Structures are given as structure tokens and as C-alpha cells.
Amino acid sequence: MKPPSGAAGTVVSFALAQVGKRYVYATSGPNTYDCSGLVSAAYARVGIKLPHQSEQIAARGRRVPSGQWMPGDVIHTSGHVAIYIGGGKMVEAANPSSGVRVAPVRGGTAYRFL
Fold this sequence. Notes:
By secondary structure, the chain is α+β, with helices and mostly antiparallel strands.
């Protein structure tokens, strides 16, 4: 899949480049990430400072109705955030056993920062 252009492309490309790295709670790179650390590091690449806490990240974005999600949107579920990359998929720092991976979206609410 080709990343989008502009700021969304930068966010998505950065997140995809982290796939395969380890999940470590309370880290934000460059070698390990937790979910909010990955999202905040990706958005920092385009000059957007987000908190390192999933609920606080969601509280700052504009809610996007289902069916209108775009690559770069942040998907929030209770205690977790990920970056939507399109096609029903997201990049997430999942957990210590899975690390940073591309996975199918499993529900949630999307928020836009771009």
C-alpha cells in the first residue's frame, strides 16, 4: 500500500517504519514503543505534540464518523491508540508479545489531528 501524501503520509510512513520493533511500556522510541509512544512519535514528525497517554490523545482530536476515516487518523479503544493506514488496517504497538505490527482494525473511534 502506498502511503498518502503530505503530513498524513509522513505520519503513516514513520509508523510503518517502526513495524517489528519491541513493545515496552512507557517508551516512545527510537528502539521500543508503547501504543501512545508510537502515536506521539509519529505525529512529532509533522510538528504536532501529543501527550504520551492514550485517553489524553483521544481527548485532543476531532472525532471522525465511521466510514470517513483517512490514513493518519488515530484509532482509540479503551486504553489503546493506533494509526489508521487505510484498507481496514492500522499500525499499533500492540503488546510485549506482538510488538509494533500492522493489524486489522478491531473497532474503536477515530480522531483526526491533521
